[in-house]
Amino acid sequence: MAEKNNSIGRLIITLTVIGALGALFLAGVYEWTIPHILEHEARARERAIMEVLPEADYYEEVTHNDQIFYEGYDENDNFVGVAVSLRGGGYAGEIEIMIGTDPEAREIINIFILNHQETPGLGARITEEQFRENFENAPFSELEIVRRTPEEPQEIEAIAGATMSVEAVKNIVSRVGDIVSEYYGGGS
Amino acid sequence: MAEYFAIFKNGLWNENPIFKLIIGLCPTLAVTNTVVNGFAMGLATGFVLISSEIVISLIKKFIPNDVRIPSFILIIVTFVTFTDYFLGAFFPDIADALALFIPLIVVNCLILGRQEAFASRNSTRRAIFDAVGMTVGFTWVLVLLSAIRELFGFGTLAGIDILGAGYTDMIIMILPGGAFLTLGVLVGVLNLLDRKVGSDNG
Question: Which of B48, B65, B106 to mutate to test the interface with A (most CBs of A within 10 A)?
């Protein structure tokens, strides 16, 4: 440690130089890594859309009122459903879910958890196939959480020890009906 | 060479950050619920520790005493942010699992503590041995801790099923409570071991 030269100017210069060099280095790191990070995000989103619209061969992005809709089409260009990505508060942070819907039937096709910060082993089990299956063919309406094997289509089976996370997913998914129906009239 | 080896060995046992110095507990308690997470956290912390000890031991003569702590933090922050972007770009699965605990490496007092106690007073070569020793010491305890928690919490080790399907998961071991329990018992056992070895030797 340099004991002398503890003048205020020297202190400011030292911190400025370290900060500037650090920022310069990180600017380079950002330029280097950001294409990879964006690519991972885009690929994750694409995989999620294909997962929730299993009959789709390709999709198109359409924006209505700041909300992006991913319209899925099969190989004969027939409309097979529309997916939206919705966010909401979970137990430990924000949960982002890709939800595939069939506006004609007013049903949810499937869901896929894009991002979450739920507790590993508990809340994080919302990403498991077994939980997501609950939402297959669920209607456009307020869903219900039950602590037994679901019997009705709107019933979602709870996960032991993850009440808050399941509740959060249910609330987010329950919103999808209104959002989709507004632009994709379906039967009405 | 023996001197360097002694510095290296220091971190493994005598001054082991977790169970002797009891520092760096935030990531220790938070991410050690699976072996993969614990190991990745050890390596990420180790990378930041080694890089910042090297840089700080190199530029220690230019840093005025009055601003040494902010200078250390600036350097540590730079390496942590690098780690965050690097993992996000090339190891997205690990980045997802560790999520906000990567930025929190900044406030791991193990890292700042080693800069203040060691890197700022020693040559770069000695600092490297100290940092590597501390990294190995930190990582092995994290892995041991997460192995115990994962085994009882999920019945698995590094994702491989050990206890079979009939095992009822002890959810508490995955939650923060399990981390406190395991760490407390582990520190007790290791200290007992230490005392036993110490009395045998002398």
Answer: B65
ipTM at complex level:
0.81
Report in angstroms the alpha-carbon separations of A42 from A35, A37, B73, B100. 10, 9, 34, 21
From residue B125, alpha-carbon distances to B6, B121, B129 in Å are: 13, 12, 7
> With contact defined as beta carbons under 8 Å apart, do A96 and A85 qualify?
yes
Between the CA of residue B122 and those of A65, B9, B10, B112, B118, what are the distances in Å? 61, 17, 15, 15, 6
> Residues A108-119: pLDDT tens digits?
999 999 888 887
A15:B67 CB<8 A: yes
Domain ranges in chain B are 2-201
Give, in order, the Cα–Cα distances in Å from B31 to each of A41, A48, A119, B179: 24, 27, 10, 9
Burial of residue B70, with CB atoms counted within 10 A of its CB: 0-12 exposed, 13-18 middle, 19 or more buried? middle
Residues of A in contact with B85 (CB under 8 A): 26, 29-30, 33-34, 37
Distance CA B79, CA B81 (A): 5
Answering whether pTM is above 0.90, one says no
Rounded CA gap, B53 and B110, in Å? 12
Query: Looking at the complex, does the CB of residue A141 fall below 8 Å from at least one CB of chain B?
Result: no
For A140-166, how does the pLDDT look when each residue is reduced to its tens digit (9 = 90+)? 888 888 888 888 888 888 888 788 899
pLDDT surpasses 60 at A186:
no
- Quick check: B78 and A5 CB within 8 A? no
d(C-alpha A121, C-alpha B136), whole Å: 27
In which region does residue A154 sit, left (phi positive, over 0), alpha (psi from -120 to 50) or beta (all else)?
alpha
Contact with chain B for residue A47, Cβ under 8 A: no
Q: Kind of pairing, strands A155-157 and A144-146?
A: parallel
For residues A28 and A20, give the distance between their C-alpha atoms in angstroms, rounded to a whole number. 13
